[in-house]
Amino acid sequence: DQQVKQNSPSLSVQEGRISILNCDYTNSMFDYFLWYKKYPAEGPTFLISISSIKDKNEDGRFTVFLNKSAKHLSLHIVPSQPGDSAVYFCAALTQGGSEKLVFGKGTKLTVNP
Amino acid sequence: EAQVTQNPRYLITVTGKKLTVTCSQNMNHEYMSWYRQDPGLGLRQIYYSMNVEVTDKGDVPEGYKVSRKEKRNFPLILESPSPNQTSLYFCASSFLSSGSYNEQFFGPGTRLTVL
């Protein structure tokens, strides 16, 4: 059973517009939610995280929103740039155990110039 | 430069021929982990290690072994590879969490093909 779900395999936006990537989860015990970004032929790189006790975290152009009642989080990128084109993985973590990151399947974002 | 390195980056082998994928980190991280990435499945954890000589199974450990004799190294061993182990493998490391999230750093990946 998939605990972290990214239902959109791909998203295409115009440069300068907002990109919104969505993620749903089923396990209410997760302590942290993360977004990782992956370019082809590279490993995933950490982008932004949010604690389960927060509802928003912002870092420059990137903002993550958490709605615990809906078990939903989203990543907003404003403004989107062509260099943001990559696969974005939503992941979740429960502390105090295996430190395992539970990943979604990823969403491929394409930002068109 | 702080990094996680993996070798080899690409490997084509045949069923049953033992192989080892090495992973090394230079950040003095306690925690290391192996993931595999398959189309339509995201990344899944194979094994992890909380410190030297401490290892445990992840979600998909069948067919794999690991060892953690030194803090910096965490090799992944396939004793008898099979075609269903054809995948993209990532090693990751981090400090252990202590009240806040500690970023997991990923290696560049090893693309393994088992014929």
Rg calc of chain B: 14 Å
Alpha-beta classification of chain B: mainly beta
Query: Which stretches of chain B are poorly predicted, pLDDT < 50 over at least 5 residues?
Result: none
Alpha carbon gyration radius of chain A: 13 Å
List SSEs of chain B in N-to-C order.
EEEEEEEEEEE
Helix content of chain A: under 10%
Q: What is the CA-CA span between the terminal residues of chain A?
A: 38 Å
SS content category of chain A: mainly beta
Q: TL;DR of this structure?
A:
Chain A is mainly β and 113 residues long. Helix content of chain A is 0%, strand content 54%. Chain A has strands at residues 4-5, 10-14, 19-25, 32-38, 45-51, 56-59, 62-67, 72-77, 86-93, 101-103, 107-112.
Word description of this protein:
- The complex is a heterodimer of chains A (about 110) and B (about 120).
- By secondary structure, chain A is mainly β.
- Chain A is about 0% helix and about 55% strand.
- Chain A contains no helices and eleven strands.
- Chain A has strands at about 5, 10-15, 20-25, 30-40, 45-50, 55-60, 60-65, 70-75, 85-95, 100-105, 105-110.
- In chain A, the strands form two sheets. In chain A, strands 2, 4, 5, 9, 10 and 11 form a six-stranded mixed beta sheet that branches. In chain A, strands 1-3-8-7-6 form a five-stranded antiparallel beta sheet, with no helix packed on it.
- Chain A is globular and about 45 Å long.
- Chain B is an all-beta fold and about 120 residues long.
- Chain B contains no helices and eleven strands.
- Chain B has strands at about 5, 10-15, 20-25, 30-40, 40-50, 55, 65, 75-80, 85-95, 105, 110-115.
- In chain B, strands 2, 4, 5, 6, 9, 10 and 11 form a seven-stranded mixed beta sheet that branches. Chain B has a four-stranded antiparallel beta sheet with strand order 1-3-8-7, with no helix packed on it.
- In chain B, strand 5 and strand 6 form a beta hairpin.
- Chain B is globular.
- Classes of the chains: A mainly beta (about 110), B mainly beta (about 120).
